[in-house]
């Protein structure tokens, strides 16, 4: 006899765990550590430099820029002698970059190699931040309309709430570990939304097929639980294979796409969890509420 797990029966435990995860990560990330935004959103200059001197570290560079370039942050990446130097821009970004590179070259002479330079003005940064948020909102609306058309409004409601859950949980964890929001992070969040809804639609499709056959003989809650169990192996196998591919990207991809890969790793875990425990459970609770009203 096939063993089945009562996912729907444990839905209130799942709701509580999700609340703890989202509330805890957001409180710690947003209010204790503080949300961090990269130069994509705040405007600024970024210089990636490789310095052939083992005695140089992040603190050495911070001290170097004191009194010369204001608000500089230094981050060590990939290897011990490669650094990301970020500086806010108040006027012309070119002047900020020039000040940073000039200071480095004067100090280290031929030992420093400038490997990457990025510049974004404050106005452009604000515009990119607003467009990134709107992209997430439009994605949610598009998914809501598609699922409502493809299935029913009740399923669309569950799918979008589950996507809000995934987005909030992923961004909360991202903030809690002290990483910076940037355009690649927004791209990763959109990817997570697309990945999560794919898993959810597979479960919803099975629920719809089973409803055609079993709705007269079984309670809706039991049909949903059976559908989740029937698609469970597919969901887990797909998620694991994707997870290991992204894990390789995270480990070997380098500093440029590290944040992107990190968001995907967290999003795959959270999205798989919500597809199994949250999305269909919301449909069950909403279905019961509608039946009571009728």
From TrEMBL:
Pfam families: Sec_GG, SecD_SecF_C
HAMAP family for the chain: SecF_B
Keyword Transmembrane: yes
Reported function: Part of the Sec protein translocase complex. Interacts with the SecYEG preprotein conducting channel. SecDF uses the proton motive force (PMF) to complete protein translocation after the ATP-dependent function of SecA.
Subcellular location as annotated: Cell membrane
InterPro entries in the cross-refs: SecD/SecF_arch_bac (IPR022813), SecD/SecF_bac (IPR022645), SecD/SecF_CS (IPR022646), SecD_SecF_C (IPR048634), SecD_SecF_C_bact (IPR055344), SecF_bac (IPR005665)
The organism of origin for this protein: Desulfurobacterium thermolithotrophum (strain DSM 11699 / BSA)
One GO cellular component term noted in the UniProt record for this chain: plasma membrane
TM ranges: 12-31, 132-149, 154-177, 183-204, 236-257, 263-287
Keywords: Cell membrane, Membrane, Protein transport, Translocation, Transmembrane, Transmembrane helix, Transport
First-listed, main subcellular location of the protein, grouped into a coarse class: membrane
Molecular function via GO: protein-transporting ATPase activity
PANTHER family listed in its UniProt record: PROTEIN TRANSLOCASE SUBUNIT SECF (PTHR30081:SF8), PROTEIN-EXPORT MEMBRANE PROTEIN SEC (PTHR30081)
Quaternary structure and partners: Forms a complex with SecD. Part of the essential Sec protein translocation apparatus which comprises SecA, SecYEG and auxiliary proteins SecDF. Other proteins may also be involved.
Ranges for domain Protein export membrane protein SecD/SecF C-terminal: 102-288
Name of the protein described by the UniProt record: Protein-export membrane protein SecF
Family statement drawn from the similarity comment of this UniProt entry: Belongs to the SecD/SecF family. SecF subfamily. In the N-terminal section; belongs to the SecD/SecF family. SecD subfamily.
Gene Ontology biological-process annotations: intracellular protein transmembrane transport; protein targeting; protein transport by the Sec complex
Topology with respect to the bilayer: Multi-pass membrane protein
Superkingdom of the source species: Bacteria
